Amino acid sequence: MLKRFDDNSRRILKFPAVLPCQDVNPVTLLRSLITLSNFITNYQSQLFATQRKNVRESIRQIGILSMFFCEIMEQDVSGLPDPAVLCFSELHHSFQKILFVFEDCTRSGARVFILMKSHFVATQFLTLIRAVATALDILPLNSIKVSIEMKELVEMVAKQARRAKMEVDPDDDYAMKRVMLILNQFENRFEPDPIIIKRVLYYLGINSWSECHREIRFLDEEISLVSLENNERDLHLLSTLAGFMRYCRGVLFENFVLENTDDQSAGRSNLEILSCLNPEDFRCPISLEMMIDPVTVSTGQTYDRVSIEKWLKSGNLICPKTGKKLATTELVPNLNLRKVIQQYCIDHGVSITKFQKQSRDISSTILPGSPSSAEAIKFLSEYLVRKLRNGTEKQKSKAAYEIRLLAKSNIYNRFCLIGAGAIPLLLTRLSSSDSTIQENAIAALLKLSKHSNGKKVIINNGGLNSILEVLKNGSKQESKQIAAATIFYLSSVQANQKLIGEIPDAIPALIELIKTGTSCGKKNSLAALFGILLYPRNHQTALSSGIVPLLSNLISCSDKPEIITDSLAVLATLAESFDGSDKIMNASSLPLIIKTLQTSPSRAAKEYCVSILLALCNNMGVEVIAVLANNANLIGFLYTMSTNGGSQAGKKARSLIQVMHRFHETSSSGMVANWDASRIATIHSC
């Protein structure tokens, strides 16, 4: 009966309490009330950074009522009058909400946010305690068999609940005003006194780098959620606090020992793993628009929430994509996919607001969120650069790690760090013999290379050779794969593609990482090569380094679908030239491409296969076309692609179909010998 919500399923300061049904069994209701009361009273051993007086009073009153419920359970409760059951139902509803408030006041990372919401939280306490008093007003105590002493205690609780003054604690109010003063100083471009800041943090129990980091993680998660709701007031507050706490983490906690935070590991598994995958994968199968709030249904398929909710409200109880009946209409948020889509938009400057008004405009990542946060980040950036330049080795290591975290947040933070001069100093740390310093420096450069100014500064300061040195001889595998990712972002500028290709060891080093690296290293190297090979003159270097047999082996042997797709993407780029097509044919890769087209579940992989086949036909002529035309099953897959694929893939599939039809026509008339590639090019251009 008692539904529990964890931190991931319930938003902070949202109280989704459920009123017990009217025909609930009194025994079940009382047992649940006792359990709920115990949950609440057990919080007396928890640390409450704020709202201490309100919490103590709530626990005291609920503790008395818990004893009352236990004493009732010792009697025969089958004859409880209806008003008593109604009272207990209302109490159960209020207790759920009180428990939610307790959870939020003790939630990890939410201390500064709850402090700044002190008036709202105190109002919630007052409302809920008054709701307890109202429920007790309808309780027929004389009809309930408990001791006289217990009845007197319950009456006392009812009176005290009606008169309770659940107010903001004076100490909380003072701390809140201190924070507001600090934020105003930031906004007025005045760096606050660190002693005042430390006193506020000490009051909240934020006494270490890790505790400060948890506050930032919570605020970032809330910013991500609130931005989708278009709630400008809360977004302003959250952004302001996030900037403040980042300043605190970077400046105040100098005696920091590097630890493997969740952000670091998440960076390795997500943000630093690149892909050549088509952003078409981010589109909802129903609306064909980019998903803003992806949710997964019982069949495992993912849709945008708005689209699938409309589908279900129309009375459709089957999965639109699979046609299978849905076991339940429950929609499970796909948080991982949502983060990937948001990061893709940040990195590539894609605006998804035109698809969904509630979505966060991508330009908001260029802005700091509030004037106070803007100045806090500027002060912090300048401080970190000073430590990189003049600090001890420990301070330099910590500064590099702080820059890595700060640059991960949004475009504005990267802009400030680049403007403060972080990049040249980070480049000097790449040669460090300390593997941790090297990793943090290259990871920070990766984040900054996503900014257009960052790319320019890295190239202008000769950073390309330093990054390639990490790629070849980095002290850790992680550093090598991050270096490959950095090269990918640098290669997004056309002039850089030429520069990278002119360095003799660049392309061979990426190919070597594909051979020896982890899955992450392979993916990053494939993505980097994909970017570099957009410059046609780089193809010959890659071909002479043996890339085609390597890619063919990955396609045939890898158990990672994304690596297969990325390998096909690179192969499709190489196939555009005659030399690339010739190497593919010499590696006997044609049957492999045909098989992959027919068996791969990935739409992107199929599209790349079609691109490769068309390029092979265009460059190699009848040698390839004859093989395709004699494959009876291939034409069916091409017809499917021509109607279900993307616009470009459909066009290429139709071109291949025309090529095969023309070949059959000419072969039946005995004119195959006169077939040439120029006719294929003519078909492709139609």
TrEMBL record:
The protein's annotated pathway: Protein modification; protein ubiquitination
Q: Which GO terms describe its molecular function?
A: ubiquitin protein ligase activity
Keywords of the record, alphabetical order, are: Repeat, Transferase, Ubl conjugation pathway
Broad enzyme group: transferase
Q: Which reaction is this enzyme known to catalyze?
A: S-ubiquitinyl-[E2 ubiquitin-conjugating enzyme]-L-cysteine + [acceptor protein]-L-lysine = [E2 ubiquitin-conjugating enzyme]-L-cysteine + N(6)-ubiquitinyl-[acceptor protein]-L-lysine
Q: Where are the ARM repeats?
A: 421-463
The protein's Enzyme Commission number: 2.3.2.27
**A single GO BP annotation from the record?**
regulation of seed germination
Boundaries of every U-box domain copy: 277-351
Membrane-spanning segments: none
Instruction: Give the protein name, as stated in the record.
Output: RING-type E3 ubiquitin transferase
